[in-house]
Input
Amino acid sequence: MTVGEIIEQVSLTVMAATAGLDKEVKQGYVSDLLSNVMAFAGADSVWVTMQGHQNIVAVASLAGLSAVIIAGGAKPEDETIAKAKQEGVVLLATPLPSFEVAGQLYRLGIRGA
Amino acid sequence: MTMEYGGVWNGCLEMNSRQVIQLEFFLEAGDFSTAGEASSQIKRILQQIGVKAETARRIAIGAYEAEMNVIIHSLGGKMRVAILPDRTDISVEDNGPGIADVKLAMQEGYSTAPDHIRDMGFGAGMGLPNMARCSDEFSITSEVGVGTKIRMVIHHP
Output
C-alpha cells in the first residue's frame, strides 16, 4: 500500500507532501520516543506520533520512513512543516488518537515492524 | 574535502578505491533547529556514492544519535567523518562535561536528560545503545570535566 492510498482511506490532513506519495508503506510503528523509533521502526514504515516538533522530520528522513502521522490533534510546528517540505518527508495530521490511527492502518493491512 | 557545519553539498560524487571523503561538523549545544543536518549530509553523500540503503540508514541513525547527544548533553563539540570505499568512520568529540559512569550510561533506559528534553521524545536512554547497535566497531571514552569521545566504524558490505 502506498502513502497516497493510505491518505485516501484514513481521515488525514496533508501537512507536507512535496514528494513520496507513491512510496510503499511496508509496516507501521507507534511511538513518541525518537530513539525507540529509530531503533525499531524499520525502513519504509508509517510512523504515528504525538510529537510535532521539527526533529521528527530528521528522524523520518534519516530512518527512511515513508510517512509521519501526527495523531491526537497535536499540531505540528510551522518549522516542522517547512522542514518536511524541504526534505520531501510526508507529514500528515489527524484529530484521531494514536490507537485509532493504528487500528485503521491495521485494518488496511499494515502490520507492525 | 572538508565541510563546515551548515554548508550545503549538492555536488556529484564519485570515488575510486583510494579516495576518502572527509567531513567535519561543528555541533552547538542546545541547537535543536539545525540538529540532524550533519547526519542528513552524511546520508546524502553515502547515497550518492552508492552505499547500500540499509547501510546508509544505519550510519545515518548512529550519526544522528551522536549528533543529538552532543546537542542535548554537552557544551558543544564536533563530528569528524571519513567515508572510505569500504567503511565509514565517525569520531565525535565534545567539550564536556563528561560522563561519570560510562557503563551506566550505556545501559538501555538510563538517561540524565531533563524533563523538557524528554517531552520532545529524546532522553529515552537509548542514544548510546543505538549507536553501538548501528556500528560494527564502537568505542566510548569519557573524562569528567574534559569531555566524551565516541568512535563508530561501519563497514560497507
Observations:
- The helical segments of chain A are 3-9, 34-40, 55-62, 78-87, 98-107.
- Chain A has one domain: 3-107.
- The beta strands of chain A are 13-16, 27-30, 45-49, 67-70, 91-93.
